Amino acid sequence: MKKWVFFIVLFFPATVAFANPVIVHTSLTWVRFVIVYVSSFGLEVLITTIILFFCHMAVVPLLISLFAGNLVMYFIIFQPVLSATENLLVAEVVIVVVEGAFIKMISLFDTFQLEDFKGLKWRTAFIIVAVGNALSYYAGVLIGG
């Protein structure tokens, strides 16, 4: 029961916001955008971290680095590419490539590895990021309406 309460508290404010961070409505205030963005963004980080845990990577360092890294990448890479190309598919492909390279890079450090870590392949990193981004986007659409 506690899990459901956590998810309701986490995602209820986003349902009031009526938007996805990528699909910004004209009536969207910055507070609503932040609520939806944090909900969608947090879901992506959690999904990616959970999947990477099954690849024998440490959860806490991953959560911290993925949160910080994705936050920076969203504003420095994703938003400029999206505004320059005005093509969501191109922006998503670019961010998947950058985030995949980021995950592959951090997987090389001992801090992110559990004892039985065997290495992370490039393909695996890109697939994990693609799944995390897709589920985050669809969840944001469902949450935001």
Average pLDDT, rounded to a whole number, is: 80
Number of helices: 5
Class by SSE composition: mainly alpha
Distance between the termini: 26 Å
Query: Based on CA inertia axes, which overall geometry fits?
Result: globular
Low-confidence stretches: 8-19
Strand content bin: under 5%
Helix content: over 70%
Short description:
The protein is an all-alpha fold and 145 residues long.
Task: Annotate the secondary structure layout.
Blueprint: H1 2-17, H2 30-53, H3 59-85, H4 88-106, H5 122-144
Helix pairs in contact: 1-2, 1-5, 2-3, 2-5, 3-4, 4-5
List keywords for this structure.
145 residues, mainly alpha, 75% helix, 5 helices
Overview of the molecule:
This protein has 145 residues and is mainly α. The chain has one domain (40-144). 75% of the residues lie in helices and 0% in strands. The chain contains 5 helices and no strands. It has helices at residues 2-17, 30-53, 59-85, 88-106, 122-144. α1 crosses α2 (30-53), α1 crosses α5 (122-144) and α2 (30-53) packs across α3 (59-85). The model is unreliable at 8-19 (pLDDT under 50).
